[in-house]
Amino acid sequence: MSRIVAGVAGGLTLASVPGDNTRPTTDRVKEALFSRLESYDILVGARVLDLFAGSGALGVESASRGAATVDLVEAADKAAAVCRRNADMVNEKLGRKTATVHRMKAERFLEKLPAGQHWDLVLMDPPYPLGEDALGAVLRSLSGYLADGAVVVVERSSRSQEPAWPHRLVRFAVKKYGETQLWFAEPVMGPSAPGE
What we know:
This protein is of the alpha/beta class.
């Protein structure tokens, strides 16, 4: 059972996706991740994108901790329904609509974005079956929608290889927590044109 760790909605219990097709981020990893993000002073007022959102736990944690907007992208019907429940619960606690759920594939979501859209923080916890080539393609599409100083976090199994970063993104940190590995990357320079 997952919960909001801290912030305005801290302590709220989140709904979980039934079955074993998703692997929720443990509270221990979530706490470590968000402590690091707070040390970067990136959360308050941030525009956040949670790709492959699952239950939405990472995105709604961002909302609880002061993000201005959170876009949660999830393709699977059951997961998207749970994600919507969690987003609604956190939005109600915040007293405003901060988190918005988009039920579609990450690739499709990025294809439909208007020019000029940028995020300050992107959280990606792709499903295990998503291959490295597909992940690399998503990262390439994403690299054109990052604000100056943005942070991209990719969560994978510690047995997975490092993501193939596009030339506009550079890894600056790696943290391992048991079976979970987090890669942190940032844009090489200011916002780029979509698709670069």
